[in-house]
Each structure stands twice: as C-alpha cells, then as structure tokens.
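for the writeup, i need someone to sanity check this before i put it in the appendix. the sequnce is what the collaborator sent (i think, or maybe the updated version? ugh). structure was predicted straight from it, no edits. if anything looks off just tell me and ill rerun, i have time this weekend
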Amino acid sequence: MKKFKKTKKRFGLSERGQSGAVFRLLVDSIVGIAILMVILGSLMYFESLNNNASRQEFLSKVNAAVNSPDGTIVESNGRIVFPSGSGFTTGDMSALTGYPKECFSFQSNLRMAEANDAIVTFNSNVKTKVYIRCIAEDNGCTAEDEHNMGCCKITCLISFGEPIIIVE
C-alpha cells in the first residue's frame, strides 16, 4: 500500500478546501450584488411612483382652482414632491386647462427653486405645499375670445411653499 504525502493544512483546510472556499466567496459576493441591485431597483421604482402621484395631485389642484375661480385658495393636501430638474411653465398650465398662458403666474420663496412669472424650475428634490388661487376676471372677453392670447376670463397665481396673502 502506497502512502500519500499529507498536504499542509492552512486554517484547518486542505488545498482543495481552500480553493473551494474562494469559489464559495465569489458566488456569495455575486449573489449579494444581485440582491443589492434588486433592492436599489425597487427603491427607484417606488420613488418614481411617489413623483408621479405628486405630479398628478399638483395638476388636479390646478384644475380644481381653474374650475372654481371664486378667489378661494386651493391648497395641496400634503407636501408635494418635485424632483430635481423638473419644472412647470405657464404654457404647461395653458395646455392643461385650455386658457392662455398669460392667465397664469408663479411665485416661490424656496431656495431650491427658481421662479418668475412664466416658469418655475426645481434645482434639487423639493417637498413643499402648493397654493393656487384663481379669480374670474370681467375684462370684456367674449366666448370666442376666451382662448386667444391675452384674453383671460380668469387669472391664477400658483405659489410654491409660500401661502398666498389676500389683500383687500
């Protein structure tokens, strides 16, 4: 009977066991990365759902204010999320409501948003309340003139983060 030479064991494993441990470590790390990718993908998916829900709430509040232009302030139910790089123009509001873009204006006191009368842009993720006030105007516009430029039967102010103060 032939005697085999014993291999030196390191850390309690033979050479064959050591190579199996390295392979096992490689497989475990690949599985760990795959699990991490699934978790990150699901987080991004739920964040996009939240952004879409916030956008829909904002647009529905604009429609609500336009459909009842009695001067009451329509306020968002909670804080609405606006992702970085997003924004709105008066043209967007015109396309949504059918009124000329001159009928809408924006204001904001947020450091993370740039606003002028015609456009608001968010420089980073913003979570804020939105206030909208629409007032019916009696400026001689007829039904035919209603959708022409500059002829506004209503005017709307959309404020981000800053309550609208009514001065009478």
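The first strand starts at residue 70 and ends at 75. Residues 54 and 141 are 34 Å apart (CA to CA).
thx in advance!!
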